[in-house]
Amino acid sequence: MHHQVPRLIALASVLLAATAAAQDAPPNTSVGDTHDGHLVGGAELPRSGPGFHWETNRGNPGARYGATTLVDALQAAAASVLAAHPGSDLAIHDIALRDGGPIRGHGSHRSGRDVDIAYYARTPDGAPMNPTRSIWFVSGGRERGAPAATGATFHAERTFAFLRALLTDRTIRVSHVFMAPHLQRLVLAAGGRDAAVPDLRRVLRRPRGRRVDPHADHFHVRIHCPPSDTRFCED
Ligand SMILES: [Zn+2]
Description:
- The mean pLDDT is about 90.
- This protein has helices spanning about 5-25, 70-85, 155-165, 180-190, 195-205, and strands at about 30, 40, 45, 50, 50-55, 65, 90, 115-120, 120, 130, 155, 175-180, 205, 220-225.
- It has a four-stranded mixed sheet with strand order 8-14-12-13. A three-stranded mixed sheet has the order 4-5-7, covered by helices on one side.
- By secondary structure, it is of the alpha+beta class.
- The protein binds zinc ion.
- Zinc ion binds near residues 106, 109, 114, 116 and 220.
């Protein structure tokens, strides 16, 4: 019995600290870490804007909230791809719920620093294509099930251009990009000798384990804690 008391005291102080942190958090803050944190005063991604639209990929109609820096950077990156590739309309998927916290279909996405994004695609004759749903790409960037379906292929150049825009955005620091290995290869090849390629290589992660989402129909970007949030945010 006695040996449990220190543990209870420790637990109580952790809970008190967490409560205090939530109460003191400034108006826009990513609190805690990506797997058990939450979001205070998150920025709302519009349903659509230049070069993008938002749609949930896990049945979460409210998952359009994130750290302000992330939400702004996503819009800037989509606009830059649109400028270089007219007609682009990227499907941005779940970020976090308005207050963050647990969210259906995701292990993380709790503190506004994670976002799922559909891959850019092209038509069988190579033109940019904006699919109305995420497309699952297999080896070589072909659509799973093609040619029965749309015949779309993976658009590595636009996917690289979008990631390059995020990696060179000084307002955020990308920490992880989860992507299927066969698609990583295509994106890195599309980057060629671009100065952002080594940075991309550093943050690319391959999903591991049988139960893990293979990220063949979308990629997942995570950012480091915004510098203004380091008091509450945990990397
Ligand atoms: Zn995700």
